């Protein structure tokens, strides 16, 4: 499907969203966001958690199995050095809010999509493969923390929602209950959702059924014709490959490949898609 057909998309600014410094930010309300700061507000969303990375950074992740967290691949890398975080440098805090988590888990292994190549200067080329699976050191089997199912059928015009942590709401997640899929091209979803630093890897949910199902994860934010948009990776294109990579990974880590083609080559095959990259 052409992205926003018949209107062609120009992404003027793309910024990766992993957060290099946790700091002491407090949860805040933003336009279109509802804080999940209490037990009642967060009920049903406990399987979304904060991924602490190294000494200072964090992303967002979500359980899709009792021992498996889905997030963005670039969250596995130190954005300053480009090196991979070791499994013992990553911690998943399920349902983290106000200094406590519903469950704390370490990490046995973390696997990026095999076609993903970390490059902070080429985020558009990276988005289509920006997925990672994290295997926890112990499964989470609590009645209050139920892994989310996957929905592979996201289409333009669908209503979606996002639950995420960010730099201004590091101590409790927020929910954007309604945003829309604006289009899809080459494994990248463009959405009207509000995202910010720390929201990398946040689950994007289909809201059409009785229970929310994950359709994508947040990879980056961008500006499209003066409108802020979020970019997510299409699970329909990449999740099966990622699961296969996890099944064949070494116990500690799987080194991703360098990618099959350059960003310039991929962009040349997308006549309707242009971008100017910046370092976040």
Present the secondary structure layout.
Blueprint: E1 10-16, E2 34-35, H1 39-42, E3 48-53, E4 57-65, E5 68-71, E6 90-94, E7 103-105, E8 107-112, H2 123-127, E9 132-136, E10 159-166, E11 169-185, E12 188-191, E13 203-206, E14 213-224, E15 227-234, H3 235-247, E16 253-254, H4 263-268, E17 274-277
Parallel strand pairs: 1-17, 8-16
Antiparallel strand pairs: 1-14, 2-11, 3-4, 3-6, 4-5, 5-9, 6-7, 8-9, 10-11, 10-13, 11-12, 12-15, 13-14, 14-15
Short description:
This protein is mainly β and 280 residues long.
Written description of the protein model:
With 280 residues, this protein is mainly β. It has a single domain, classed as Beta Barrel (Thrombin, subunit H). The protein has 4 helices and 17 strands. It has helices spanning 39-42, 123-127, 235-247, 263-268; strands at residues 10-16, 34-35, 48-53, 57-65, 68-71, 90-94, 103-105, 107-112, 132-136, 159-166, 169-185, 188-191, 203-206, 213-224, 227-234, 253-254, 274-277. The strands form 2 sheets. It has an 8-stranded mixed β-sheet, covered by helices on one side. The radius of gyration is 17 Å and the shape is globular. Mean pLDDT is 79; it is low at 1-14, 19-30 and 251-280.
């Amino acid at each position: 499907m052409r992205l926003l057909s018949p209107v062609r998309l120009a992404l003027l600014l793309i910024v990766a969203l992993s957060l290099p410094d946790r700091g002491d930010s407090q949860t805040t309300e933003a336009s279109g966001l509802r804080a999940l700061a209490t037990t009642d507000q967060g009920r049903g969303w406990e399987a979304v958690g904060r991924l602490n990375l190294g000494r200072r950074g964090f992303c967002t992740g979500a359980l899709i199995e009792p021992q498996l967290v889905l997030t963005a691949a670039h969250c596995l890398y130190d954005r300053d050095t480009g090196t991979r975080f070791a499994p013992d440098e990553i911690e998943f805090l399920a349902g983290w809010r106000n200094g406590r988590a519903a469950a704390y888990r370490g990490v046995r292994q973390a696997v990026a999509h095999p076609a993903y190549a970390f490059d902070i200067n080429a985020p558009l080329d990276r988005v289509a493969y920006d997925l990672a699976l994290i295997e926890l050191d112990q499964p989470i089997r609590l009645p209050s923390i139920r892994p989310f199912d996957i929905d592979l059928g996201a289409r333009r015009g669908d209503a979606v929602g996002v639950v995420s942590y960010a730099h201004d709401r590091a101590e409790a997640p927020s929910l954007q209950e309604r945003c829309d899929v604006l289009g899809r091209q080459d494994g990248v979803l463009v959405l009207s959702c509000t995202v910010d630093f720390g929201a990398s890897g946040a689950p994007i949910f289909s809201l059409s059924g009785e229970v929310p199902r994950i359709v994508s994860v947040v990879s980056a934010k961008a500006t499209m014709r003066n409108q802020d948009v979020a970019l997510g990776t299409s699970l329909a294109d990449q999740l099966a490959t990622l699961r296969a990579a996890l099944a064949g990974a070494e116990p500690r880590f799987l080194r991703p490949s360098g990618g099959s083609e350059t960003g310039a080559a991929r962009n040349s095959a997308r006549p309707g898609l242009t971008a100017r990259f910046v370092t976040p």
